[in-house]
Structures are given as C-alpha cells and as structure tokens.
Amino acid sequence: MLIEKLDRKDHEKTRPLYEECFPEDSKRFVDYYYSYKATDNEIYVAREGDRILSMIHLNPYRMQVGDQVQTLHYMVAVCTAKKYRSRGLMGELMNHVLDVMYDRGEAFTFLMPITEELYERFDFVTAYRQPYYRLEHPVLWQRELEDLGYRFEKAIELDCADIAKKSQSLLSRRYDIYAVRNAYYYETLLHEQKAEKGGIMTVWYDGKMIGSYLYDREDGLSIREPLVEKKHEQKVFSALRKTKETKIMTRVLCRENLGVPLKNMYLNEIV
Description:
It is a single chain. The chain is of the alpha+beta class. The chain folds into 2 domains: 2-129 and 247-266, Gcn5-related N-acetyltransferase (GNAT) (Aminopeptidase), CATH 3.40.630.30; 136-239, Aminopeptidase (3-Layer(aba) Sandwich), CATH 3.40.630.30. 29% of the residues lie in helices and 37% in strands. The chain is built from 8 helices and 13 strands. Strands 1, 2, 3, 4, 5, 6, 7, 8, 9, 10, 11, 12 and 13 form a 13-stranded mixed β-sheet that branches. Helix 6 packs across helix 7 (183-195). The longest helix has 15 residues, at 89-103. The radius of gyration is 20 Å and the shape is globular. 31% of the residues are buried.
C-alpha cells in the first residue's frame, strides 16, 4: 500500500470513490465539487497500484484566528472503499495527513463527522454546532417584513464582494475564529447553493444591505448562516425554527500558533 498526495491533474480519479461513499450527494453537487473545490485542494490517498482504496481531501480556507489570518484546512471526503474497510487504512492515512499539517505549522484542522466516535480516537473534539432553520410560511414571512421596510434580493456573482464586506464586518465584531470572507468565497458558495437548488439572499433596510443568508429548496425552504446587523436580528429572524444542528469537530495541531481559545468561533459547514 502506498500513501501519497495526488497531483491535481489526477484529482478526478477520486470521483468514483466519492460517489461510492457518498451516494446521498446529488450529481449536481458532485459536478460542482469536482469543478470548483477539487481543482485547488489537496487529496491524499492510500492506493494499491492504480486502485484508490482510501482518501482524505484537504480544502484550504483563509481563517481569522485571533489577530492572525492563517491558511487552514477543512477535511472533506474522508472515506474508504467498502471492500477495504476495517483494515486500518484510514488510520494510517489520517495520521499521515495530520503530520503533514503539523509540519506546516497549522494551528488546527476541522471536519464535519458522520460519527463522532470515528474521530475522537484521533483527538478530534466537537467544538461547534451549526444550526439549520426552516420557515413554515416563507411568503407570508417575507411580505410581513417588506411591510416593515425590509427588502430581499437574490444575490448574483456581482453582489459577492459587497456580501463579503458586510459579513466580514459582522463576524469580526462577534467572533475570534471564522473563515475570512471575500468575493471568491461567496462566488464559490453561490455555485454550491445553486447545486442544491438554492442561493444567497441579501437583506436590505433603509437602502442599505444589513446582512444575508443561505437558502436551499431541496426539502422545503431551509436556511443557514443567517447574518444580519444585531439590531435587526429579532425582527428579521424571529420566525425561523431550528430543525437540526451540524456538528463540527476540531483537532488542535500547533497550539503555539493558535493564540486564542477554541471556543468563540463561527465554523459553518463549508465545502
């Protein structure tokens, strides 16, 4: 068995394993992922010959960590082909990838677990819970807010720089750790949301953008990352009902590069 980092030109070769291990992801989403995210990430594999048995994707994000901006990695597509499971492949691959990030001086890494117990043995801990929300009567909710002077607009790519500027301002006032927002971040996120039959909605009041949220219509209207100015939160989002939480686990790598406690954070489910 060989553990290695794939050349980017070979990233597409991992798609069959991705589709085997994550059949719940739609073809639209997998197309998006391999067109946008798998073009500039790192993919580590365990293989025999040309056969990829196990893999871990490291997707890079610019993260605000206290007063520093660091490039850290979100671990995605952690999986092993069904017929090769329970042979210790993932353990060897995971330890190799953690060592790579440690040697680079990365403060921490994070992931969204299917089962927490699988990662606790690698010293991951649950550090954040991202809520998802539903609206029972979205049309009525929007009309009532419009009567109060609020306005909603579906974002297009040209809006992404302004959304990033607003979100960055809101997050910097509230959190010590979060993914840095820029135009590219939201352009990519917009494509991801569209792959899930959704998008990004901007919220306006008195002629100014006061925030935004992500939405999808895969199963009714689901909302995540509702970010608006504090004084408008109660009015705008009082009708939201939390339906579930996505757990995010972290693993500290280089504590000397952390600088702040791993608690006041905003770690959304990003790809």
